[in-house]
Design a protein that fits this description.
With about 180 residues, the protein is an alpha+beta fold. About 60% of the residues lie in helices and about 15% in strands. It has a four-stranded mixed sheet with strand order 2-1-3-4. α1 crosses α6 and α2 packs antiparallel against α6. The radius of gyration is 20 Å and the shape is elongated. It comes from Chryseomicrobium excrementi.
Amino acid sequence: MSKSAVAKRYAIALFELARENDTLTTTRDDLTEIKAAWKQDADVQALFASPKLSLDKKKELIRTVFGSASPAVVNTIQLLVEKKRLHELPAIVDEFSALSNNAQGIAEATVYSTRALTDEERAHISSAFAQEVGKGSLNIHNVVDPSLIGGLRIQIGNRIYDNTLRSKLDRLKRNLIG
């Protein structure tokens, strides 16, 4: 079974459980925090991959470190350790987030700008573009890119809305040359 198929199966199972228990948002937040911690610390990854540490010790460590997360999340991570699939955790979190966002009418958006967006600007962008993609709201990830000179480039799924000064200058250059 491919890695993405494995991640999808675990994510669907966890999603169904969270939906039944009405804990989608909490579960998504827990998973996002755990994924960030996991990706940030290579030593932790090496520790869990080590055959020197017994399965029971790994499970105990998970309960200790991630004990504040929901029981479903802790149990899922323990199952991943047991099945030697903890390396799938980032993909599972991504799949779970996509399922959760879809169920809640949220689309993921990356907004490139020359400076960090304010909360008011985020809310305005969310309300303006959510309807464009048929969702209730956008979960905005802001990327600061000074090379844009001005304006915004918004990527939602495979759609890109580019209203940057850089793209306008590039179009003007192509029109003048060509």
